Amino acid sequence: MSRDELEGEDDTTVAVFPSQTSGVEFLKENNAWGFVHIDQQPEYVAMYISDDVQQVRYVARVKEIVPSTEATLARTLESYVGDQAEFDENKQVVVFEPGTLYELENPIDYESRVPYSLRYTELGRFKQAETTDDIL
What we know:
With 136 residues, the protein is mostly beta strands.
């Protein structure tokens, strides 16, 4: 999917999360992003993949945010340790609308700014960004 195809007003909230390459498996197997602190209900979630990728490469529409202990995940909560998102009962899981997790055709490349933790941006900026500096 191209960023131009994302629907919403320019001021629609996009939550940008950092992830290692290993976190992509969590995204795909759960159609969710997990074990985070989040204080807003964004319309979209975008994932900056670090390691050798260094791009905002994935986007999904948010369905709901649930406590981690109430999330329906592909594996047991306790199995999420190590390289992937690590289970924490005090954190939340961001569940995506079914079928809305996309790998971007036009990912946003790293320039000099990296989301080391959750950052928010607007959909208009996200769609037009050439580099991560444009959204952070």
